Amino acid sequence: MPVALTIAGSDCCAGAGIQADLKTFTAFGVYGLTAVTCAVAETPLEVAQVHEFEPDFVAEQVGLLLRRYPVAAIKTGMLGSAALVETVAKALEGHRARGGSFRLVVDPVMVATAGGQLLASDAVTTLVERLIPLASIVTPNQYEAGVLLGQEAGDTALAGDAALELAAKLGVPVVLKGGDAGGGERVTDWLAVDGECRSISGPRIQAVTTHGTGCTFAAGIAAQLALGAALDDAVRQAKNFVTAALAQTLSWPTMNGGDDQPIGALHPLPVEPEGLAVGDWE
């Protein structure tokens, strides 16, 4: 069984972070390892508190796992600070220098769905200069792409251009996610590789209050890469998976004195509901 490692935060409600990543790895038939960077007290509606772990502890987790397991793919998620980004980059560089081989998916987690800041502003430069150059692919949403480009989030109609610009700036493939662009019955993502950009769309699942879609998508790509998939097929399979997970979201009423707004959790089972498959690359 292939092995994948997630280096990310722990989400106490298990909808995002390492919990979502492990569910996704398991659904794809990949054994998942975790190096925890921080613990977050949150739900899809609220980020209450973030506790960041010491860089030395994170480095110990990553180093130990890379020494003991044949890690084929790595996904990074919430890193929080410039010190943690530097720590992870240094550990991965060291592993490659010792002959280690892996494919790396960088999810540049900056802001939670509920609005909490998850990456310090001074860490963006470190992310771009130290970690992203090691990546096989980067998976920003439109907000994150804007930050990485040093500009406001782009118009949806120009997202393909933004993906190409970002891939050229970073020097690695980029898949720009379109799920945060409101409205429409379809969600389109743009994959920019080697100066070429293609789009792929799938049905938008309406009226879902949840989080963790970005984590699940990046983890799905990492799982597919661990299984040996080509990059474009890995992205397509991950998009299919997220669409199916959203369609099977679990919901419960909140326990806060009468507010019955449901809180959803992605339910990533290895099942694709009929009629929800994404389209082909264009």
Helices, strands, pairings?
Elements: E1 3-11, H1 17-27, E2 31-43, E3 46-52, H2 55-68, E4 71-76, H3 82-97, E5 103-106, H4 123-131, E6 137-138, H5 142-149, H6 159-170, E7 174-176, E8 186-193, E9 196-203, H7 213-226, H8 231-247, E10 250-253, E11 262-265
Parallel strand pairs: 1-2, 1-4, 4-5, 5-6
Antiparallel strand pairs: 2-3, 7-8, 8-9, 10-11
What does this structure look like?
A 6-stranded mixed beta sheet has the order 3-2-1-4-5-6. The radius of gyration is 18 Å and the shape is globular. With 282 residues, it is an alpha/beta fold. Strand 1, helix 1 and strand 2 form a beta-alpha-beta unit. The longest helix is centred in the C-terminal third of the chain and has 17 residues. Helix 5 crosses helix 6. 36% of the residues lie in helices and 24% in strands. The chain has a single domain, classed as UDP-N-acetylmuramoyl-L-alanine:D-glutamate ligase, CATH 3.40.1190.
